[in-house]
Design a protein that fits this description.
This protein is of the alpha/beta class. It has a single domain, classed as Rossmann fold. The chain is built from eleven helices and nine strands. The strands form two sheets. The chain has a seven-stranded mixed sheet with strand order 2-3-1-4-5-9-8, with helices on both faces. Strands 6-7 form a two-stranded antiparallel sheet. Helix 8 links the parallel strand 8 and strand 9. Helix 1 crosses helix 3 and helix 4 packs across helix 11. The termini are far apart.
Length: 308
């Protein structure tokens, strides 16, 4: 497994960024605990280790931009809306759920945020939305999150081809965590993502650190160029998936998992900002209150036919 290089932690980390990072972390840990206690049915895919990606992107995006998420999308939603109660209610099927409890963990629709568990599906859909934005809402973006495993889907290449031909305002965020469910990237991906992107003549940026401020500084101009009609952009984040693929199905050996934990942004930030890590206790307590509140709610009422 290729491990990501680590950048020095930026001294300009804001309290709001740290709070959001920690809130997402504790939300995901709470989900795994709820599954372990049998209080949630179905499945879930946590973004443990990848929380910094949507947090870093948050101020670079406008609320009128479209964001297309994927099966590992809780962090994307929470960075966009800061709404752990609505998301947890959706996952638990309780009152106040974002989609009346019918979407669950993987299928969320709220304003211009959409997510699906179907790998690769969102790339051509996002390209179509980008075409619409190009014609009707200049300087708006369609942003789509995919993983390294999604590069085995033909729909990805069809979407990239159209985006390149029509110079669409599309940003593809690749969260390359080195493993596709249980298959290491090196065993399923020939060549490189960079090489494949370059084959379409699409701009490419590579991010190897977890520092949210440094990431923003790197990506601010490339994303602004997409808004200025320069054509699509692919950003590849080299990251780690600290948790299992879904619940308890982690096939990696203990040594590999221990190595990944040394690269966790949480460990680095706790070491760099010990005087500010009271925020960790606050965010943990916030999520604990959220769990108690949502668990006490009645089941969500399903909408009648024709209602949204």
């Amino acid at each position: 497994m290729t491990t990501p290089a680590l950048l020095t932690t930026h001294p300009g980390l804001s309290d709001a960024d740290l709070d959001l990072l920690l809130m997402i972390r504790h939300f995901e840990l709470a989900l795994l605990d709820l599954f372990g206690r049998g209080e949630i049915a179905g499945t879930t895919h946590t973004c443990l280790g990848q929380e910094h990606i949507p947090v870093a992107l948050k101020p670079l995006l406008d609320e009128a931009d479209y964001v297309f998420s994927n099966h590992r999308g809780h962090g994307h939603y929470l960075a966009r809306f800061g709404d752990p109660h609505g998301l947890l209610a959706e996952i638990m099927g309780r009152d106040g759920a974002v989609c009346h409890g019918v979407g669950g963990s993987q299928h969320i629709l709220r304003d211009r945020f959409l997510t699906t568990g179907i790998q690769g599906q969102n790339v051509p859909v996002a390209a179509g939305v980008a075409l619409h934005l190009q014609r009707t809402e200049p300087r708006r973006l369609a942003v789509v999150h995919i993983g390294d495993g999604t590069w085995g889907e033909g729909a990805v290449y069809e979407g990239l081809n159209m985006a390149a031909l029509w110079r669409l305002p599309l940003v593809v965020v690749v969260e390359n965590n080195g493993i596709a469910q249980s298959t290491p990237t090196a065993a399923h991906l020939a060549g490189s993502i960079r090489g494949r992107v370059r084959g379409f003549g699409i701009d490419y940026e590579e991010v190897t650190g977890t520092d949210v401020t440094a990431i923003r500084e790197q990506l601010a101009r490339p994303i602004a160029r997409v808004r200025g009609r320069s054509g699509p952009l692919v950003v590849e984040f080299h990251t780690v998936r600290l948790g299992p693929h879904s619940k308890g199905d982690d096939t990696r050996d203990q040594r590999e998992r221990d190595l990944m934990r040394t690269q966790d942004w949480f460990v680095r930030y706790a070491r760099t900002f010990p005087d500010r890590f009271a925020a960790d206790r606050r965010q943990k307590a916030l999520i604990e209150r959220c769990v108690r509140d949502v668990a006490a709610r009645p089941p969500a009422q399903r909408p009648h036919q024709g209602e949204k």
